[in-house]
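F.,

This is the one I mentioned.
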């Protein structure tokens, strides 16, 4: 059984696991708000493909969207990214604090 919150963490990490989504996040990090068309122009992909990647990032809670007439604009959810960073830091701190099975032992 997964630890509480690990499913949410794994979903956010899954959202980060694609190079296009990382590029989208980097693009959004450098701007206050970005219209979908601007993101599409920055990538060598069809609009529908970029939209699918945006959907994954939205569902993971890493970005926010706002509809402005026929256009959608997106921005990085900085609070969510900060929270994710803290969760990852905690996860790795916990993992590294445990004695490893392959650690050399002093049996003398």
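My design for it:
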């Amino acid at each position: 059984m997964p630890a509480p919150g690990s499913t949410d963490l794994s979903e956010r990490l899954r959202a980060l696991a694609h190079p296009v989504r990382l590029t989208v996040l980097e693009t959004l990090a450098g701007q206050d708000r970005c219209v979908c068309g601007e993101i599409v122009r920055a990538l060598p992909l069809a609009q529908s493909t970029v939209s699918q990647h945006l959907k994954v990032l939205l569902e993971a809670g890493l970005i926010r969207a706002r509809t402005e007439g026929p256009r959608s604009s997106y921005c990085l959810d900085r609070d969510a990214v900060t929270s994710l960073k803290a969760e990852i830091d905690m996860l790795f701190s916990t993992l590294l604090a445990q004695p490893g099975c392959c650690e050399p032992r002093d049996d003398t």
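Helices lie at 6-16, 19-29, 36-42, 47-59, 78-97.

Talk soon.
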